[in-house]
Write a structure and sequence with these properties.
The chain is an alpha+beta fold. It has 2 domains: 216 residues, Enolpyruvate transferase domain (UDP-n-acetylglucosamine1-carboxyvinyl-transferase, Chain), CATH 3.65.10.10; 209 residues, UDP-n-acetylglucosamine1-carboxyvinyl-transferase, Chain. 30% of the residues lie in helices and 27% in strands. It has 14 helices and 24 strands. A 5-stranded mixed β-sheet has the order 21-22-1-23-24. A 4-stranded mixed β-sheet has the order 2-14-16-15, with helices on one face. Strand 7 and strand 8 form a beta hairpin. Helix 1 packs parallel to helix 7 and helix 10 runs parallel beside helix 12. The longest helix has 14 residues. It is globular, with a radius of gyration of 22 Å. The two termini are 17 Å apart. The mean pLDDT is 95. It binds uridine-diphosphate-2(N-acetylglucosaminyl) butyric acid (EPU). Uridine-diphosphate-2(N-acetylglucosaminyl) butyric acid binds next to helix 1, helix 5, helix 6 and helix 12.
């Protein structure tokens, strides 16, 4: 049985839609609880499969986890045991690389299977993470599909410069250094809002981290952390995805539970395309009357335009006037969605890390396959604005990072449903709500 999304497109969207907590902030914070050895109450945890995999993984390591409400998780890592991470679950997630920093910080060593995650067709190295651990005195090794790091004499603060402002490496060095002796300095650190959220969470537990959100982060080691209650920030990429959906279909939607500052680069590009975006206290109002203007997009680290919004904006360029372009500046290959959009009538030429997109009058529904999370989000937007019926396969990728996407989009007037298909009989069974 596999899940499909079926969309009847070309319908403008109206109303209000709410954004969930940010997956890429919740992931490091969940792994950070390993350092706490106490009870943490985490609110605004999104209901997405990457998070349920993480909760399963932590629970198999001995964490006591209870859900007190749909989005609230109580997690007690007092009795977690070192070296017990289940390989199969680790291999499903990129975020499981955070086990390295967290276990190193708590136990002085870690050995995990090579983490998985979305495959962009290129490599997703961890060399900067390991460089960071070595700066704290750990020895590292990558052999036989496993990664290990060990600090025989304990971790001691050090300085590390990252050649690339890597989100994952910044998270991992913060995790490893919070309980280390002395001060750690990360230079050219990632500045993403989820780094700030992780630092705020750890500081609420008693850590001493300064500079998160800038490119120099200093971590003064403390001897122990205590539990706290913490609310995860809203997901700027989920917000941006719904903003792009409204831009594509036309209509008027208030996207709620947003920190407008976090979506500024997205708002700016939408405005250049002729979409009206009004920032409110904790929401943005998006009004769109197609046609859209073409633009050139370059993805960069925060506060630049996010790579995780690139495929969704490629759809907007497909239906904009004239010719637009995208330069992917973070990942070496993130264009696997282009072939799928071509099946819907798009004209996209990909050359290395660049795409040239020639706007067409309309996209037409087709059967397409999501190849990763944001590619899947792009296909949903394409289906919403295309004429006719779109069937999306590979829905499991979309479920990794979008909480209740079908229900939320239906709430603003989209005709979208999920169906289980029995592969053998190809009979379709509607999903129970
Ligand atoms: N890089 C290295 N060496 C390293 C680490 C990274 O060369 O040791 C390179 C990567 O190859 C890439 C660049 O540095 O070219 C940036 O990678 P980064 O480490 O920042 O990415 P990540 O931590 O693996 C997170 C998000 C991604 C998002 C990127 C960039 C999580 C779990 N994942 O990945 O999110 O695209 O940052 O913002 O936080 C998604 O949510 O769909 C997603 C893929």
């Amino acid at each position: 049985m596999s899940m499909r999304m079926i969309i009847q497109g070309a319908k403008p969207l109206y109303g209000e839609i709410s954004v969930s907590g940010m997956k890429n902030a919740a992931l490091p914070i969940l792994f950070a609880t390993i350092l706490v050895k106490d009870v943490c109450v985490l609110d605004n945890i999104p209901n997405v499969s990457d998070i349920s995999t993480t909760l399963d993984l932590l629970s198999q390591m001995g964490a006591k986890i209870t859900r007190s409400a749909r989005n609230t998780v109580l997690i007690d890592t007092t009795h977690i045991e070192e070296g017990t991470s289940p390989d199969e679950l680790v291999r499903r997630l990129r975020g499981s690389s955070y086990l390295l920093g967290a276990e190193l910080g708590r136990f002085g060593r870690s050995r995990i299977a090579w983490p998985g995650g979305c495959d962009f067709g290129g490599t997703r190295p961890l060399d900067l993470h390991l460089k960071g651990f070595r700066a704290l005195g750990a020895k590292t090794d990558t052999e036989g599909g496993f990664i290990s790091a060990e600090a025989e004499n304990g971790l001691v603060g050090g300085s590390v410069y990252f050649d690339i402002a890597s989100v994952g490496a910044t998270v991992n060095v913060i995790l490893a250094s919070v309980l280390a002796e002395g001060t750690t300095v990360i230079d050219n650190a990632a500045r993403e809002p989820h780094i700030v959220d992780l630092a705020n969470f750890l500081n609420a537990c008693g850590a001493d981290i300064v500079g998160a959100g800038t490119s120099v982060i200093k971590i003064h080691g403390v001897t122990a952390l205590k539990g706290c209650s913490y609310t995860i920030i809203p997901d700027m990429i989920e917000a941006g995805t719904y903003m792009a959906a409204v831009a594509a279909t036309g209509g008027c939607v208030r996207v709620r539970s947003v920190i407008p500052k976090h979506v500024e680069s997205i708002t700016t590009k939408l405005c250049e395309m002729g979409v009206q975006v009004t920032e409110e206290d904790d929401s943005v109002l998006v009004q769109s009357n197609r046609p859209l203007n073409n633009v050139n997009i370059q993805t960069l680290c925060y506060p630049g335009f996010p790579t995780d919004m690139h495929p969704q904006f490629a759809v907007l360029l497909c239906i904009a006037n004239g010719i637009g372009s995208i330069h992917e500046g973070v990942w070496s290959n993130r264009f696997r969605y282009a072939e799928e959009l071509t099946k819907m009538g798009a004209k996209i030429m990909v050359d290395s890390q660049n795409a040239t997109v020639v706007g067409v009058e309309k996209l037409t529904g087709a059967t397409v396959e999501a190849t990763d999370l944001r590619a899947g989000a792009a296909l949903v937007i394409a289906g919403l604005c295309a004429e006719g019926t779109t069937e999306i396969r590979g829905v499991r990728y979309i479920q990794r990072g979008y909480d209740s996407i079908v229900e939320k989009l239906r709430g603003i007037g989209a005709e979208i449903e999920e169906k289980y298909i029995d592969e053998e009989t190809t009979e379709s069974i509607p999903k129970a709500n």
